[in-house]
Amino acid sequence: MTRFTPEQLEAARDRVVPDVVAGGLSVLFCGINPGLMTAATGHHFARPGNRFWPVLHLSGFTPRLLRPDEQGELLSYGLGITNVVARPTARADELSREEYRTGGRLLVEKVERLAPRWLAIVGVTAYRTAFDEPKAAIGPQERVIGSTRVWALPNPSGLNAHWTAATMAEEYARLREAATRTP
Q: Which residues, at least 6 apart from 31, have a Cβ–Cβ distance to it below 8 Å?
């Protein structure tokens, strides 16, 4: 993995990280916002210690452990990645409530256009804030966007000590099973 200087990471704050999307996906995973490592590399969930890629594999979404630079392969599995907020930051707490709410409105437009079967927001706090659902819990949500169902998943950040990779994989597998049942 490429090592970046603090200056290079700071310079990445101005970068846009392209979505990995297509119409009619089975699951569109939605991160909170790109971290600086993601912005520097252009690859989602690129920070060492982020458990998204291992959990995706452990839960059965991918047949092997993908690296962040292999994110394009997700499309062949009917999966994609976007973010609630596009602005890269070092920490999610740098985002304002208004950025989350604006991101939620833009996300609804994107989901209406792409029509995935499931929108999976990886971070229940991001879901609560973006969609003004303060009591939302991990799991399937009542909200439907067009024909798209919504699921809140645990945040795979290494900072989320409440969830292990194994317990996260169990929750992600619940979504995978629901996505295979969804007509």
A: 44, 45, 52, 81, 82, 83, 84, 122, 123
pTM of the model: 0.94
Q: Does residue 117 sit in helix, strand or coil?
A: coil
Q: Is 33 a catalytic residue?
A: yes
* 44 noted as active-site residue: yes
Q: In this structure, what token pair is assigned to residue 51?
A: 């458990």
The active-site residue out of 43, 44, 83, 155 is 44
Catalytic residue, chosen from 33, 50, 83, 155, is: 33
pLDDT digits (tens, 9 = 90+) for 97-153: 999 999 999 999 999 999 999 999 999 999 999 999 999 999 999 999 999 999 999
